[in-house]
Amino acid sequence: MSADTPTAPAGVSPATVDRVATASEFACRWMLARPDRFAELVAAGVLITPADRAELDTAAAALGETADPAGWLAACRQLRNEWLFRIAWRDLTDQADLEETLIALSDLADVCLEAALTQAETELAERHGHLHDDQDRPQRLIVLGMGKLGGRELNFSSDIDLIFAHRGAGETDGSRPLDAAEYFKRVARRLVQLLAEQTADGFVYRVDTRLRPFGDSGVLVASLPALEQYYQTHGREWERYAWIKARPVAGDIDGGRRVIEMLRPFVYRRYLDYSAFESIRDMKALINRQVAQRGMEDNIKLGSGGIREIEFIAQAFQLIRGGHEPALQDTRLLPTLARLGEQGHIPAHVARDLDRAYRFLRRLENRLQAWADQQTHDLPADDDRRKRLAVSMGFEDWSALSTAVADWRRRVHDAFEQVFLSPQTDEPVAEADDDILALWEGDMDADAAAELLATYGIDDAEPVLAAVARLRDDSLYRALADRGQRWMTRLLPLLFGAAAATPEPSLAMQRSLQVMEAVTGRTTYVALLVEHPTALSHLVRLCAASPWIAEQIKAQPVLLDSLLDPRVLYRPPRKSELSAALAEELAPVPEADLENRMDLLRRFRQRALLRVAAADVSDAMPLMIVSDHLTELAEVILTAALDMAWSQMMSRYGRPTIRGGDRDGEVARFAVIGYGKMGGIELGYGSDLDLVFVHDSPGDQETDGDNRCLTHQAFFLRLAQRLIHVLNTQTGAGRAYEVDMRLRPSGQSGLLVGHIDAFAAYQREQAWTWEHQALVRSRPVAGNESLGEVFRVVRADILGAARDVDKLRREVAGMRRKMRDNLTRREPGNLDLKQTPGGLVDIEFLAQFAVLRYACECPPLLRFSDTIRILETLESAQLLDYDTTRQLTDAYRAYRMRVHAGALQQSRAMIGETELQAERDAVQAAWQAWIGEPDDQAESGPDMAPKSRP
């Protein structure tokens, strides 16, 4: 540094000036060269306040008043140096936090770019005229900032990475016209020259344009169609990484936004792209080799535990998950790290550590570069520079700073290895793996193959060998590039090892290989399983436990992502958590984009369903809680689907507003009533939804739409149809739920949606006894809560009416006989658990009979819609003795457990002729005591006599 010391002007202490001059030779030179201007800045107070973008814009705009190019070059460099000094002053005096410094540096670059572009356009216009589109609007160069400039994270003396583009054809209007391609090429060249040319006043920015398509060999400025074609055809993995940071920084800003939107599908894949781990690992390995070759171990950007490793961690998850989680599509690193921690993609404490490390290393980087306005990331070797750097960072000496740097770099590298280390790909290949690969390649005879499989606990080799052969010979596998086939050969030994750890290795292997067949053409899922052996272990374990789970994952491989975190996988969320999570996922998707919202709804349901099933097969949850979770999930999905339907209907037709009467101005209400398993809180894995829709509006009034109106009856009819469409339609992500509307008044011949008063009248005057039985298992499940309460009153009124007991007994018994005759499934040697005498449906009928018989005397029976609590209420009211209650509820739970287990095993609810005999006998005895036989002699069978609780 010069022996001269800057003089402290009035308003700032000599100690502060000395602190800045000691830390930055660049700042010292500027203060010595511009003492008057320095004094003006101090007097104006701008060194103690954050940089003002409006002031910067005004200063840059004044550059356009400079007449000659040489004068412009000098003025722009002087502006850049002054503002760089101002930013450095606040940073070196610890007045600015990291975000302020990085944003100010980025704003300075943006303003200088815009000023240089304007100057380039002015110079070319003098010789070649202006370029306009076919509507006579001026066309400008699209300037996209990449890297740290794109993320508004520019460092003190950074190159700026730029990509140039233009919208399309045209010709300038001067006497020496240029076509659009040539015009924009010259503008871009002049822009680079204006910024990068070294003069007596220095330079503005070093500009790097090598990130453009085809690099140095490609055109400097590409048209939008050419850009799109390039990335569709030639785009490479590292280019996806680069485009994460892209941001329009000058010129045609709207055009820049269009480019970024156009390339979003290239950068952010719609599927979860775990192959990004390998790509970034390869990039990091290349950097490591360069670091070692050039002796750059002290490089805080590229060295072990440096800034680049933090960037790789954040951007890997952005590449992998950004297509599914729009919140991760952020050019900024620190907010991305925070979201990764909040969403559990990395542990929260690791996210906090990386945040602190990044702030420390970026601050250190700026102090290194502020010394001489040079792009450097190497820690100094000179003792004097080391001391100055330590003091500027707030440390007593170099030893203390060096220790802190080493500690932060160690933490960063540990986190990097946790994310990217792939032990199974780095370890030597074991002999057993060689044998598996020989089997995979078909180089093993049948006896040797069977012997090999036996070592993995697979006694029945033939179906497993056939599944391996199908996978190997699959056309999708053969069409894979070398990289995809390499992933598969890595996976197979891991798959055999995981299957060997299950109780039934043969079944586990067969079902897991079926899943592999489904994902063969999508190597990102294979990459996920190789990169995350824990996920592979859970996949194989779940496939072994349930073919239903295997089929779900096979149909929707995106579910593989749910296997990554066992803490979440085996803990299904409750309703409030589900609602919050679904709302958060839906929030970024526009309401008008119904297709994507429907797909998201289905994927959300599938993930939640898998978590319930995983907890179920691992015995982490009792049966009744399983049904609670499944029912709550259906309610959340149904509510979200109704919201979508409402939104679409109101955007088209307005609101069904009531006019006149006591409710003038109110929006008519709509409610969804669940029946059957939905109403009884007893949903299973494959249950459809039995629904009835009601509203409370005068049907002849019209909606208040601006252009298109409907009568309220027509509005609610279409609303119901739209809701069914959202739930029932098969999309690429499957179906949300099948909806059954046959329990509505008058069945399939009745209106799809009716007025609540008409529903009540039908139930009182026309409904059959079996319809009142169905009403027992009904409750409001979505829609307007106050209308739901009206329904509950109607339900209680209907079910609480006194009945002719003999007639009731006769009709319930007759309906039960019809069901047995028409619905019983028959297999030799087996019984239909649901329909057999003493089976599951008998218990449900007994509970329904009891409600219809006794609710008029025992109103608490109207409180519940599920069978278990109805039976328990009968006991509490002393209408059923303790022993019978326990027999019936225990039998009901046992039956439902078998139904659930059958669903997970994809088998019908059948039992052997002697199975559950005691339970069936107890149910039949209760049936005989309560209802009797459905014949003429039994019509006046014994009534249910009140029993005293023991």
Automatic annotation (TrEMBL):
Q: Which InterPro entries match?
A: GlnE, GlnE_rpt_dom, NT_sf, PII_UdlTrfase/GS_AdlTrfase
Q: Where is the PII-uridylyltransferase/Glutamine-synthetase adenylyltransferase domain?
A: 281-420, 815-902
Sorted alphabetically, which Pfam families does this protein's record hold? GlnD_UR_UTase (PF08335), GlnE (PF03710)
Catalysed reaction(s) here are:
[glutamine synthetase]-O(4)-(5'-adenylyl)-L-tyrosine + phosphate = [glutamine synthetase]-L-tyrosine + ADP; [glutamine synthetase]-L-tyrosine + ATP = [glutamine synthetase]-O(4)-(5'-adenylyl)-L-tyrosine + diphosphate
Keywords of the record = ATP-binding, Ligase, Magnesium, Multifunctional enzyme, Nucleotide-binding, Nucleotidyltransferase, Transferase
**EC number(s) on file:** 2.7.7.89, 2.7.7.42
Supply the name of the protein.
Bifunctional glutamine synthetase adenylyltransferase/adenylyl-removing enzyme
